[in-house]
Amino acid sequence: MATKGFVLYLLAAFSAAVLSAFIISGHYTYKNNHLISRPSLNSDEKTWPELAFSWRIMLGTLIGFLGSAFGTVGGVGGGGIFVPMLTLVIGFDTKSAAALSKCMIMGASASSFWYNIRVQHPYRQVPILDYDLTLLFQPMLMLGITLGVALSVVFPYWLITLLIIILFLGTSSRSFFRGIGMWKEESLLKKETVKTQETSASFTEKLPIDTTYEPLLPRDEKTLLEILTLNLRWKKLMLLVAVWATFLVLQVIKNDLVACSTWYWALTVAQFLSTLSVFGFESIKLYKESKKRKRLGNTESICEATIEWTLPNLMFCALCGVLGGTVGGLLGSGGGFILSPLLLEIGVIPQVASATAMFVMMFSSSLSVVEFYLLNRFPVPYALYLITVALLAGFWGQFFVRKVMAILKRASIIVFIISGVIFASALTMGIIGIEQSIMMIHNHEFMGFLDFCSNQ
């Protein structure tokens, strides 16, 4: 019921925001039959500061390190922190900042992947990376990023800011209350564990197997080779790489075509078809398996998610995957601000939700980085430096938080980190967006929708 209410909140708020954009754009007219272009925000003029030791670099490195560390742990990437840091602190233009943000997310997600393939699942003999959920969300996220980049050309900047604030405040508050609920459950479980251990040392053997906080239970430690063998599913990994490569080839070819030409739309349709084919394949697999287990009375979940894979739930996941990618394309993030809370929503435990979300973003962010490199949208030395910062931050952030979780025995820490990073991103992106929008109003600049084909 709470999920439906949250979806209704998003739909109502987004509809009201877009409708207001149409009303506002009706008060503006074109002058001399020429489109009024967006201000310097969308200008092709590049501002690339020199990579030299200064207080700006030091402050930017510190913010980037902390943002990457917490963003990686929470599975949200940290794009909402990276973009303001790169523009306000270091001094990049908005487009270059978005491109470098993708570089940092790619570095953080790569370090997360390397760290997590060497980590046991908290309580089950399965990979900590959920490959089924990755195959379900990866194509939709990449499709959403393509749509987000297109909408960033069409949507007025103030509308993008408003949509981001609505979405981020909604997801952060939703995650925060979920974290509180999980914290209370953990407290009750810990109290009961201590109480029963005083009377019976064998209590842990009687705990229900489907409890959310199985890390409290003892487990058989495996060797590093055994963990790697368990976590790496080569066939599914190769399929994910194949989807990534297909999307990359189509996108690179499309970038060299004239916008809105026949071949441009043909490749756009091909992207939709390739995305829907992979999503449909995985959806049918989950649907049939779910139906089969229900018929046999098997209550064990197919993957980490505890929801039943019905048609409405699959459509909901598809919508959220596209929405997450669209926000990533608009913002310059990896889409984790939607994906990570969504995985929690469908019943994935925090450790797996974080690892899987970053795993999905490794593909989407690297796709964007290759595209931006071919378009010469970022300085390579800066990109390499920031990727290194994100790599180190992502690894040590995961290591530190996992140690804290092991001591406190509370997985809800990850949920609070998710909520905190998303809320901080809402503040930073909101402040920057409002400031930019006020400047545009003072300069009497066009505040309505732009034509897609004329502004590519």
From TrEMBL:
The lineage of its organism: Eukaryota, Viridiplantae, Streptophyta, Embryophyta, Tracheophyta. Belongs to the 4-toluene sulfonate uptake permease (TSUP) (TC 2.A.102) family. It comes from the Eukaryota. It comes from Deinandra increscens subsp. villosa. This is Sulfite exporter TauE/SafE family protein. It is a multi-pass membrane protein. Its main location: membrane. The chain crosses the membrane at residues 6-30, 76-92, 99-117, 137-170, 237-253, 265-287, 314-340, 352-375, 382-401, 413-434. GO terms for cellular component: Cul4A-RING E3 ubiquitin ligase complex; membrane. Keywords: Membrane, Transmembrane, Transmembrane helix. It is found in: Membrane. GO terms for biological process: protein ubiquitination. Coiled coil: none annotated. It holds the Pfam family TauE.
